[in-house]
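Re: zinc ion structure - here you go.
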Amino acid sequence: MSHQQFYQRIKSTFSIVFIFALLMSTLILTSIFLLDYIKPNGLMAVDNKDTLIINNVNIVSVITNQIVKNRQLVINKGIITAISETNSPITSIARVIDGKGAYVTPGLFDMHVHLYDRKYLMLNLAYGVTSVRNLNGKKMHLRWKQELQNDEWLGSNMYVSSPILAGVGTHVLNQQVLSPKEGRQQVREAQSKGYDLIKMYGYLSADIFEAIIDEAKNINIAVAKHGPHPAKGADWSNLKDLQSLEHVEDIFQGPLNYQFDHNKLQLIAKKIKALNVPIVPTLETFKHLTELSKNKDNFINTLSLDYLNPLHYDIESRFTVNRWLKDTSQQSAYHVKKLQFLLEIVKALNDHQVKILVGSDAGTMYTLSGIATHNEMQLLKQSGLSNFEVLKAATINAAQALEIDHEYGSVDVGKVADLILVTNNPLDDIGRLKSPFAVIKNGQWLDEAKLKALKISAKDNDNYFWSFINLVEDLLTRAIF
Ligand SMILES: [Zn+2]
């Protein structure tokens, strides 16, 4: 081959690569632009126009731990307008429903989830989880939130944190913060973009950590912090009055320094109580990794993985699940021991009257929306909370943490009708809430057939391509703006 031929070949190869790159970037940018208009199949319509009168129900009070029997519930335009004796006279045109002696509780809140698909919000709803707090916000979540607020489709309410603010060396899906000034800027930007709260990691340097909290307080945006202890070198008082602290596992890894120290645990629980901040234990995600580590594929085979978004499934199987599947039996035994201790941490916190919230970390590994929430509630029960305390953790405690308890969190006149109906008393067995007789979302009656339809549709997730475009949009918007 002559020199001339060689250069010619290089030139034509370069042209092909260039044209290919140009086409790909045009495709990706056009697709990002289309994200505002493209929606997956099978979303369900919001229809809460009917006034509902539900006779013959028992109201579970999450405030008094009592059951108010034989009630009639009137719901108009999504709001509970009356609670009176069953079969009270009907004064307006309404759809009358026989509650058949069902027990009514508020809809559940999962305060720690990771959403990768609109359908996850439908699955949550099918399990009575009427509100979720998503703790790794991306632009797509703000889009979904807006769609839900416009009543474009039926799903759980959603509170969205900022992208996770983390320190040097964090992975690309989190937001790296390199200086206190940048931390303050990120907080202001998150608020102006419409995020509901700031999510921060623990391994930030003390000055950045303090700057983020200080700026959030200045502009009045809530903060949830990963790990119930301050960044290294920062004072505990920084944590006072935050919205929540996440993961009891971090108490074990942080202040307890990986020691199964029962006495020191009591001192730490006391210290946390003084902060006046609720804790989201996220036991379910640790239980889940313990199962993966111990029972491997036998455990995976028990999960309904067809509820997972295909890209999300791919990322989790490559980057997180595989890690636990490689564990030795010795490592699994350690996780089993640690899980027991995490339950003990929750018990110590509850004994010290630290407010507990339900948060499953659904979306991590193969944990599934809604199902993980009920698993978390079972684990809280196992750690020593009563059925009533678990129900409070999943309802009124969450509404108080989000400062929306004037509208949500209990079955009371004037509050939004996000409710669960179960056949038998959930205060005798909290597991009953997993199989609702019906769910009411913002005044929309969802009977068993409708809940089943939500679950079926939840298996038809967004496709790989559009999920990938959402991911690229997140990376690009954070890199450029
Ligand atoms: Zn999480």
